[in-house]
Structure formats: structure tokens, C-alpha cells
Amino acid sequence: MLSLSIRDLYYWHGTNRVLNGLDLEVEPNSLSCIVGPSGAGKTTLLKIIVGQCDASRGSVEWGGKDIKSLGSKERATAMVYQNYALFPHLTVWENVTFGLEDEGLSTVALKQRALDALKMVDAREWAQKRPQELSGGQQQRVALARALAQQPKLLLLDEPLSNLDAVARVELRQRLQRLVREQNLTILCVLHDQKDALAIADTIGVMQAGKIIQAGRPLDVYRRPLNSWLATFLGSANLFKGKILRTGAGEFIASTAIGEVRGALTTPTQEPVEGSEITICIRPECLRLDSLPPEENAFSGKIIDSVFQGDFSLHQFKTDSGVILKTAEINPRQSVGSKALVYAWAEPEDVVGLLD
Ligand code: ADP
To answer: How many domains does the chain have?
Structure first.
């Protein structure tokens, strides 16, 4: 099985250091997603892997071999571009078979390849159409078929979901997961929307300023972000400072403006010293509202603003000490002006001490 291993990768564009010592491991037969702000170097990374751009330094190993000096074809990789890059004057069939002749395939084999690729994305019925006769989602599937017709082992996708409507997005998300399971493919996908990445990735890598700054299972990266930037990049978070009172067994107790809190250290092996400052992160959905709270991590206050969204409400909860916490209440019952005494509370494992 082939895995992708990138070490200490640098890329300069003029004086601009686009990739800055990037490390990345992609497991074989997995769906890995890279997310990061615009300009972080995500597209450049894909271009280096597919062979469209030469790295300035570092290694790109695919199946244990450094592929930097290989041509695009020898790498067994294919890339699907954000704008699909289909030829508008060619039919779907001609787009999918484009370039396959160069591989020395017989007419029968070439036809079978194209048919198989179109079948994988359920696009056979559009074979004689031109791209402009298809919706964005359908064009995306044709672009995917064209890449699959090259029979890559590693498929790279640059923001495949960003131009699609909600229904087509969900459909393509499921299709990518199926391709990995059924076609023995490895997919590395740059995504614009963190929620898409959390939903489909086996492994998510967050990129900032030319580096992967955290990678892991979506659940782990979301629940245990390394720092404040990562916490807010991946979702909504209440962040506040505390002073360490005690640590041990991967946990901490800190005094904060809302009282004493107990939580888990995001990196249990790096215990902060007593008296040092720590940044604490509690996600809104981890704060529950109750009139009978547990003994620890419970903060009394009231709801001062609320946005009702049907299945849940987003509240602004003002603690008695004046700190405002965002809370998300599923199956909402509380609202602004509620006379009931309310506590917001969180399980210690949902209160995270970050490395800031
Ligand atoms: P992302 O995909 O994360 O938005 P890119 O890889 O497209 O980031 O670009 C990262 C940085 O590299 C940007 O600051 C961009 O200006 C620069 N860059 C990359 N390629 C070029 C190029 N061909 N010309 C000028 N700048 C480039």
C-alpha cells in the first residue's frame, strides 16, 4: 500500500516563502483534507505533489520513493482543479478521454477506461454533452471522471465543494468517501469549509503560513486544538485566561475570572508550572444550561441575548462576574428574560487548556 510522506518542504516564490518546512503524512487508502486560510500555500502543496511545480527544498515520498524528479504520469497522481478546467468545446466523452491516447492504450481499452471512470461518478448519460450544458455539480463529476480515467493511486482535489449548492456538496462528499472505500484510492483534498473537512476526512491537517500546524482525526483536532488560533479556525470557542493552581494526570485546575475551573490539557505531556498563565477553551456546545448544576465548572448568570434557530439556540450568557460566554442549546428551552436561575456548566473533559 502506498503512503505519502512529505518532509521539511519549502517553496519560495521570489522572496515569498510560500511553504515553510511543511511535514505531512497521508495514510494509504484514506481521505485526508487540508484546510487553512487563503494564501496558506494549500494549492501550491498540491501542485508540488502532482508535479506542476518544483519544491525549493524537502522530500515528497510516495510509496517510499522520492517522486520530486518524476514526471506527472510516473507519479500515478491526478488532480482536479477548483474551476474544473474542462475544455468547453469538447464533449464530456472527449474531455474524459483527452490525453489517454498518449498512454498507448488500444481503442477497446481506452473506451473501457473512460466508461469505467464515467460510471464511477454516474455520468455516463452525459457523454455527448458539452460542459456548459451541465450544472456546476455535474461538471465537477466530469472533472473527477477525467482524473479517474488516468487510474491514479493518489487523487488530489483543490476545493472541490466550493462552487456547489448544498445538495451537490453533500452528494460529492459521499461520493469521495465511496471512491476511497471502493476504488482503493488515496485522496488528498484541499477544502475551503472546515465543516466539510470535519464531516468527511479520515485525517484533517490545518495549514497556516506554509506549514501544517496540527493534523489528526477530525474529532481529536476539533476537541483538542493546540492553540487559540486553531480553536477558532475550526469552530466557535469561548477563550479566556486562567492561572494554573494545580496540574496532574493530564488535567489542570485554574483560577479564572468566572471562578475555578478544571479541565484537560490539550497536550498532557506538557504540563504548565503552577502560577503560570493558561488559555482555556470551552466550545459553546460544551456548555450546558441547568438550574441544578454539578459542583465544579458551573457558572451562574443569565442569558442576555439569544438567536433561536429551531433545533438549537445560540445564547450570550453573562456570568455573575460579567464574563460573556457563548452557549449553544440543543432543543432550546431557555430564552432572554427567563426568570429561572440558570447555570452554564461544562464537563472537565470539555474544558481544554491550550498551548498559547
Ligand atoms: P492557498 O491555496 O492556501 O490559498 P496558494 O498556494 O494559492 O495558497 O498561494 C500561497 C501564496 O503563494 C500566496 O501568497 C500567493 O500569493 C503565492 N503564490 C503562489 N503561486 C504564485 C504565483 N505563481 N505567482 C505569485 N504568487 C504566487
So the answer is: 2
Q: Is 40 close to ligand 1, i.e. is its CB under 6 Å away?
A: yes
What beta strand segments (E) does the chain contain?
A: 4-13, 16-26, 31-35, 57-62, 65-66, 77-80, 154-158, 186-190, 203-208, 211-216, 238-248, 251-256, 259-265, 277-282, 288-290, 298-308, 312-319, 324-330, 342-345, 351-354
Residue having the nearest C-alpha atom to atom 15 of ligand 1: 39
**Ligand 1: does its nearest atom lie under 6 Å from the Cβ of 173?**
no
41 lines ligand 1 (CB under 6 A): yes
CA of 42 to the centre of ligand 1 (A): 8
* pLDDT on residue 6: 97
Percentage of the chain beyond pLDDT 70 is 99
Alpha carbons 320 and 315: distance in angstroms, whole number: 16
Q: What would the mean pLDDT of 64-77 be, rounded to a whole number?
A: 84
40 contact partners, CB below 8 Å, separation of at least 6: 207, 208, 209, 210
Cβ of residue 43 lying under 6 Å from some atom of ligand 1? yes
Of the residues 16, 33, 50, 194, which should be mutated to test ligand 1's pocket, given the most ligand atoms within 8 Å of the CB? 16
**CATH classification of the domain holding 263:** 2.40.50.140
Cβ(73) – ligand 1 distance below 6 Å = no
Its pTM surpasses 0.85: yes
- Considering 188, 223, 258, which residue would you say is the last residue of a domain? 223
122 Ramachandran zone, left/alpha/beta (phi>0; psi -120 to 50): left
Ligand 1 atom closest to the Cα of residue 47 is: 6
Task: Give the model confidence (pLDDT) of 127-179 as tens digits.
Answer: 999 999 999 889 999 999 999 999 999 999 999 988 888 888 899 999 999 99
Choose one of 180, 205, 223: the last residue of a domain.
Answer: 223
Write down the pLDDT at residue 83: 87
Give residue 1's pLDDT.
Answer: 67
Between the CA of 27 and the centroid of ligand 1 the distance, in Å, is 26
Give the distance, in angstroms, between the CA of residue 51 and the centroid of all CA atoms in the same chain: 23
Same domain, 176 and 251: no
